[in-house]
Specification:
The protein has about 230 residues and is an alpha+beta fold. It has three helices and six strands, in the order H-H-E-E-H-E-E-E-E. A six-stranded antiparallel beta sheet has the order 1-2-4-5-6-3, covered by helices on one side. It starts with a helix and ends with a strand.
Length: about 230
């Protein structure tokens, strides 16, 4: 009877363990629906938790925008380099003037009225071929080249545009005299030399023209002279 009761107890234990083992998946499966049912609640919890991240991202964007809108140190580059007008570009100048590198000293013509006046521009850079020798320690544009640049602008007033060509005009002009030359300030690399030349007298019979020339760097007068030019062939 004792053996029988022990066997019964053992069989009950095995039965219990087997039922427990079989019930485990049931419990797990029972928990799974609970997890799925509680999933919306967990999603609802994630929402507020993720909100600070979105807010922080928005703050970063706001900070970035604030940095862009902050006042800039120094001057803005836009507008510093003035878009000057252009009546003649370098190609049109080279079709009229016979000069070539390294002695073409007019980069652009801002205004021109044939037979009356012209305003030309020379960009002065450290790459100009005269700066290595004038002077190595302090580069300054030679005054005689400022006078030459004014004469080239004056030549544009005298020369006939119809005589222009790919190799420059067939007309030539020369210095016949220079009077009242005055140099007011040095011209250095980085300056823009703006030259105005007015025709004051023209003798068409002899091809002699008298002109008044002025060079400016910004508002400052750099050079002035009275020029006499002669047309030749």
């Amino acid at each position: 009877a004792l053996v029988t009761s022990r066997s019964i107890q053992l069989s009950d234990m095995f039965t219990l363990s087997a039922s427990t083992a079989r019930a485990a998946p049931v419990v797990a499966s029972a928990r799974a629906p609970r997890a799925s049912k509680s999933a919306p609640a967990s999603v609802a919890r994630v929402g507020p938790a993720s909100a600070p991240a979105k807010l922080s991202a928005r703050r970063d964007v706001a900070c970035f925008a604030a940095k862009e809108e902050a006042p800039q140190v120094g001057s803005a580059a836009k507008g510093l380099g003035k878009a000057l007008p252009m009546e003649m570009d370098i190609d049109a100048i080279m079709k009229l003037l016979p000069h070539r590198y390294p002695f073409l000293l007019v980069d652009r013509v801002l205004e021109i009225e044939q037979g009356k006046y012209a305003i030309g521009l020379k960009n002065v850079t450290i790459n100009d071929n005269f700066f290595p020798g004038h002077f190595p320690q302090r580069p300054i544009m030679p005054g005689v080249l400022m006078v030459e640049a004014m004469a080239q602008v004056g030549g544009l007033i005298m020369l006939d545009p119809e005589a222009s060509g790919e190799g420059g005009t067939q007309q030539e002009f020369f210095f016949a005299g220079i009077d009242g030359v005055k140099f007011r300030r040095p011209v250095v690399p980085g300056d823009q030399l703006v030259m105005r030349v007015d025709l004051t007298k023209m003798n068409k019979r002899f091809g002699i023209a008298k002109m008044k020339g002025q060079c400016f760097v910004g508002e400052e007068l750099a050079c002035e002279a009275e020029l006499t030019l002669a047309l030749g062939s």
